[in-house]
Amino acid sequence: MTGAAVGGINIAMKVPAHQYEAVVAFYRDVLKLPELEGGSDVSFAYGPNRLWIDNVPQMSQAELWLELVTPSFDDAAATLEAAGVTRNDGIEPLPNSDTFRGGWFFNPAGIVHLLKQTKA
């Protein structure tokens, strides 16, 4: 790897409650993407990626969240922070820090990126 991180397989679309059912129906019924998980955590095969559709009632408009993976979270996070990249781990709970190494970062346009360490 030449950079601090590479794109992961997960894409999360955070959708307001008033648009959620129509968005899920678009991917399921119109595009007919293969559904990987149903229920409250709906996801679809999106080429080689996984597109999660999250129902977020407190949002007023949809957002797209992307995943980055790295073999060393600490090194990649230090690189991003040294470049002045904003980090905010308070926007959504992260898994238990004993088993998960990661954090939430924003690109200059405000797009959320989950940077997480892959298993060695």
Protein model, in words:
It contains two helices and eight strands. The protein is an alpha+beta fold. β2 (35-37) and β3 form a beta hairpin. The radius of gyration is 15 Å and the shape is globular. The protein has an eight-stranded mixed β-sheet. It starts with 5 loop residues before the first strand and ends with a strand. The chain has helices spanning 17-30, 73-82; strands at residues 6-15, 35-37, 42-46, 49-55, 63-70, 86-87, 102-106, 112-117.
Write the layout of secondary structure elements.
Elements: E1 6-15, H1 17-30, E2 35-37, E3 42-46, E4 49-55, E5 63-70, H2 73-82, E6 86-87, E7 102-106, E8 112-117
Parallel strand pairs: 1-4, 5-8
Antiparallel strand pairs: 1-5, 2-3, 3-4, 6-7, 7-8
Strand order of the largest sheet: 2-3-4-1-5-8-7-6
Rg is 15 Å
* Proportion in helices: 10-25%
Biggest β-sheet description: 8 strands, mixed
Number of strands: 8
Q: Quickly give the structural class.
A: alpha+beta
Rough outline: globular
* Low-pLDDT sequence parts: none
Compute the average pLDDT.
91
Order of helices and strands: EHEEEEHEEE
Distance between the termini: 13 Å
Helix count, DSSP H or I runs of 4 or more residues: 2
Tell me the strand percentage band: 35-45%
